[in-house]
Design goal:
CATH architecture: 3-Layer(aba) Sandwich
CATH class: Alpha Beta
Radius of gyration: 16 Å
CATH topology: Rossmann fold
Number of strands: 10
Number of domains: 1
Strand content: 15-25%
Number of helices: 8
Strand order of the largest sheet: 1-10-9-6-2-3-5
Length: about 240
Amino acid sequence: MAAELRVFADPEALGEALAGEVLARYDAVSGPFLLGCPGGRSLRSTYRALAAGGRRLDRLVVVMPDEYVDAPSDAHYSCTRFGREEIARPLGLGDEHVWVPDANDPAAFDERIGAAGGVDLFLLASGASDGHVAFLPPGSARAGGSAVVSLAEATRRDNLATFPSFGSLEEVPTHGVSVGLGTIAAARSLRLVLHGTGKRAATRRLLALQAFDASWPASIVHEHDNAQIWADREAVG
């Protein structure tokens, strides 16, 4: 069954609403709350809205879905840096609240998540040109777990826009460690965010599907019983 679509006026309205859902779900559990948090541009309005609320979220664990292989943790493109500086610290959380997969032992990440009770809510973003989620390119296995992957050229080109400090495609890393589609699908809830005219073609492609299609990894949301697509008006067109 296709995932439900929700449409918002703009990224700020979307972010405020999604932050509200995160907080409601956080309040509904008593133990650690694992939140899947992609880096990049799509969820920034949500992260800002979470921080603006001023809530203490001491049980929140920021689960970063990917990292570039051999990226220094302070590099401008590092997902570890993003999680610590743009998500955890504005929420008053220390670095220990940020979990990142390790290229030297990817399977340990899935084990760590499972031991903590699983991801409560996985926020997702979709590549504009190939529908990738995390670092997972078209053709990724539906049941795949965390692993080191080669980054598709389309994904690397998308990252030129995400990280403008890259001077050229040659500077973008070619490999990353990423959760798998199976890791994502195991979360209790999924919310896929798309906004802006740059994501309009990706939104149309996703909405044209009714089930998971390996050629468009973001379509994993169509195979989850608690998944929604959150888009703004510009993305829907």
